[in-house]
Amino acid sequence: MIASSSKATSIKQSGSTPSNSADSERTKRGSGFSLTSHSDSKHGNEEDLAECNSKGPAQLLAPSSSDSSSAEDSAARTGEAEHPPHASQVVERESAARGEVWSDREKHASLIAEQLAGTRQGDRIWVEWEEGDPENPFNFSPTRKWLMTIFATFFTMEVAATAGAYVPGIPSMEASLRHDLHEVSLLGISVYAFGFGLPPLVLAPLSEVMGRNTIYLVSHALYTILFVGIGQARNIQTVIILRFLQGAFGSTGSTMVGGSIADLFSSSDRGAPMALFATAAIFGTGFGPFWAGFVEQHIADGWRWIQHIQAIYTGAFLIIFAVVLKETRGSVILARRASRLRKQTGDGRYMAKSELERASVVTLIKGSLTRPMISKQLIAGRAYIWRALTSIEIFFLPPVLFTEPVVTAFSLWISLQWGMMYALLESIGLVSALHDYTPGQTGLVFLAICVAALIGNLLNPLSERAYARNYPKRGAEARLYAAMFAGLMFPAGCAIYAWTSYPDVSMAGPIIGIVVLMVAVYIVYLAAFSYLADSYGPYASSALAAQSFSRNMFGAAFPLFTTQMYKNLGYQWASMLAGLIGLVLGCAPFLLFRWGPQIRAKSRLSSELERLGLL
Questions:
Q1: 537 with 615: CB under 8 angstroms?
Q2: Which of 35-39, 127-131, 317-321, 454-458 has the lowest mean pLDDT?
Q3: Which pLDDT score is estimated for 613?
Q4: Contact of 80 with 267, CB cutoff 8 Å
Q5: Fewest CB within 10 angstroms: 244, 483, 554, 557, which?
Q6: Dihedral angle at the C-alpha atoms of 369, 189, 564, 450, nearest 10 degrees?
Q7: Domain 394-601, what fold?
Q8: What is the mean pLDDT of the chain?
Q9: 528 and 413 in contact (C-beta within 8 Å)?
Q10: Is the CB of residue 322 less than 8 Å from the CB of residue 155?
Q11: What does the DSSP assignment read for 528-559?
Q12: Is 291:443 a contact under the CB 8 Å cutoff?
């Protein structure tokens, strides 16, 4: 940051107060935060330039004893010196996957870049956190933190349930709209998943400027309104278009909730909130079809009522959401506080450091949508600032996805499993039809996915203990113990699901298969994020964005050919094919466990990070 990079002296504000100093001092005493006066002079800029020219970009970006992170990030790292990174930090990493969080070094480099480009700052009075500040999200009471976490993860469960609740209503929708192209109806599943893919890359960075709460409320309101539009649709085209938009707006319930948890809990405390978040994502996928099946069975025009019921309960939740959920992004809270101080005192020097970073975020959002590829950005003729365009990761996805073997392997593996989860939304109905199940009975089968989510939640502490015990010896590869187990569980679950899908075999067989393979999906979902984040450090956002994009695209694609695959290959070999592919891809954690360090050493990106001292 400027305060830590510049040579100008940073002091507590004393006698040099604004003209209306009495009001200013009263404000400072009652607000529970600190104000630091700082002058960014031309001399400071010249010293920064000299530092860049003498040290070079590698040393500029590498950690140094003079670097000081914000109190917000310091709180986030509480306990990390004594403990390895928590295996359940998918929250933080999912946020990073959407370009949501810059590392301190990247912020530091970005602000130096502005100075070197000629930006001149006058005197500043920095608005910062003070120890014990009640408005700092890390200082919220445990009750308040958990209340906000529960409501945020309920949004996650809502959007996951919406993905599957559409499926039981397809028969009545086709009859109501006089539409007989079943494959087109299935597009409603695919476009919803596709909506999860790209929009979050734009929406999540906006939360850095507008705040998480604003993005939550606006996106949830639009997500809710679209239920009404779908329920009143008069043709399939309207349904398909609105389902895509609903996926786009609902995606914040998946991508930003992780960031909110990271705002509230320090690294050592995120295990339980993260487990709740991951459980909600999987649990909702099975819960939506469960209740929607009974609506389809017992109510005429059931597909419309499925949409109307969702509009009612998501609308009611939106009201509670607006009351309970408060802003959790610390940088946004400080920026608003600084703005309030400027108005109250008439002194324009009050500023939060995030307000300087904000301009850079907006610039990067625009730039990343108009430039074809990330590159080294030359600033002041000497200093290279890496990742100048990666607030949004759209154009960095292809090179990372296809040139980094670790990213490629994990992306293909989790993508296959995510695609299979979406295929289950359709194939469960096909298998249940062999037993002449009603829509309500078929909905009960979907509860197997909910059971798998709960089992995965119960198994997660075992994975955490294995990681903590083996981290000193294995490093990042200690993340892979549970993943190796899941590599065997997924093909086993597919095999059980496949070879019990006969009319004369109890439906208990396919249900057991669903539970086994979905527990594997849960485990791999967590392992992929945590391992990639550990392997790529400050570049984790690029690696995670690549796998998240790939995962959602597979989820969108699988429903398009599931019916044809089951009819042409047979119910047994269709499921078994996914299991066999999963068996091959399931070798990834075993290979990485054995040769992970050597593979990363040959990776251009990983080796560069090692050279820069960022891993």
A1: yes
A2: 35-39
A3: 59
A4: yes
A5: 557
A6: 120
A7: Growth Hormone; Chain: A; (1.20.1250)
A8: 75
A9: yes
A10: no
A11: HHHHHHHHHGGGHHHHHHHHHHHHHHHHHHHH
A12: yes
